[in-house]
């Protein structure tokens, strides 16, 4: 299959396929005499796996590691579970941070009159926290 066909079947665009290949996420495609990339059904399965891992928010590094575990029939499921648990914990931390930001914004928006007055609690909050990270 050429890159267009594998992109359609895997639902991963050609640009990302080339990027995954460059990063070593997927094996380098074989080439025709004319230099066109050639892919197999196995490559489609790998790309679908990578796409799903990325949809779940796994980093490229973790995706590569998961892919290696997927290919290794001698793997320990504990390794897979550990990676998934670590990722879940990271997502929960991000969610908590986002929820805290939303709560702060709710309070600020509630206290902003949204009129022509120059006093704005939103801008005052941003000013009071300048220099903080």
Structure description:
The chain has 133 residues and is mostly helical. The chain is elongated. It has a domain at 3-75: Multidrug-efflux Transporter Regulator, Chain: A, Domain 2 (Orthogonal Bundle), CATH 1.10.1660. The chain has a two-stranded antiparallel ribbon with strand order 1-2. Helices cover 65% and strands 3% of the residues. The termini are far apart. The model has no long low-confidence stretch (mean pLDDT 92). Strand 1 (30-31) and strand 2 form a beta hairpin.
Task: Give the gist of this structure.
This protein is mainly alpha-helical. The protein has helices at residues 3-10, 14-22, 41-55, 60-71, 77-111, 121-128; strands spanning 30-31, 37-38.
Helix content: 55-70%
Helical/strand content category: mainly alpha
What portion of residues belong to β-strands? under 5%
- How are the strands of the largest sheet arranged? 1-2
> Regarding CATH, which class of the domain at 3-75?
Mainly Alpha
Radius of gyration: 23 Å
Distance between the termini: 49 Å
* Oligomer designation: single chain
Going by CATH, the architecture of the domain at 3-75 would be: Orthogonal Bundle
* Average pLDDT number: 92
- Uncertain segments are none
Count every beta strand, where a strand is a DSSP E run of 2 or more residues: 2
